[in-house]
């Protein structure tokens, strides 16, 4: 049996391919669409077992994917990020509790190679607002290519409320310092458009209420402009996490 949300949506089954999107390399607050949500389970270098969700996020500019970034959410009963991810993606069970379903195992063969993956399909194509800090570039042990790494600070509403504040319709206070810091880190200089490039419309942070620090341009547009100025609007890394799923 298949059930759907009470409010119908267009575009079911239109999955985002993030492979050719340029990498985000700027700390900020981004409106994102979840392209992939992969289950990972293993043992840390210290011998501790862990489980997490690896999210591939497509950063949106006026609803259109323009950048990609990857973050991880640990799975535990004390994970604030997991609880808030479930809340902002409206992931609930029949009793209305915030609920993480079991991952779905998929496998098959493509181009002569066998693949297998465990995914949380409940998150695919859901929109979230993520607060992240850029940690620098890492090197893929598999390909030797560089890729950006991020620290997830949390998920929030369009007006920077925490999940609890949004639920209670309360003022946005919990992330006040985080928001001020992240918006203050956004680059101020806008690059001149390259030949053949149509300037983007005002980006995400300019469209929503600014309770703390109004900016001339949102972090998505600023990051993209900075990347253009540096000639970085390319996809430098082809690590597996960013590849489209083979189904």
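Q: What amino acid sequence fits the structure above?
A:
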């Amino acid at each position: 049996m298949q059930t759907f949300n009470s409010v119908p949506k267009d575009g079911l089954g239109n999955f985002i391919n993030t492979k050719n999107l340029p990498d985000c390399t700027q700390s900020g607050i981004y409106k994102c669409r979840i392209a992939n949500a992969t289950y990972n389970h293993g043992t840390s270098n210290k011998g501790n077992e862990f489980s997490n969700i690896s999210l591939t996020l497509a950063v949106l500019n006026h609803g259109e994917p323009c950048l990609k970034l990857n973050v991880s959410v640990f799975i535990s009963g004390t994970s604030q990020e997991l609880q808030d991810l479930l809340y902002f993606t409206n992931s609930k069970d029949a009793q209305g509790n915030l609920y993480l379903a079991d991952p779905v195992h998929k496998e098959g063969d493509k181009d002569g190679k066998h693949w297998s993956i465990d995914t949380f399909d409940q998150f695919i194509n859901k929109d979230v607002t993520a607060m992240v800090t850029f940690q620098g570039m890492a090197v893929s042990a598999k390909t030797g290519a560089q890729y950006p790494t991020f620290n997830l600070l949390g998920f929030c509403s369009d007006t920077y409320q925490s999940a609890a504040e949004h639920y209670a319709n309360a003022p946005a206070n919990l992330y006040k310092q985080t928001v001020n810091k992240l918006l203050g880190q956004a680059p101020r200089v806008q690059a001149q458009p390259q030949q053949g490039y149509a300037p983007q419309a005002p980006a995400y942070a300019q469209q929503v209420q600014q309770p703390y620090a109004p900016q001339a341009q949102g972090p998505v547009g600023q990051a993209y402009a900075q990347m253009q100025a540096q000639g970085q609007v390319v996809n430098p890394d082809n690590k597996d996490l960013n590849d489209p799923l083979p189904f």
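Q: And what stands out in the fold?
A: The radius of gyration is 18 Å.
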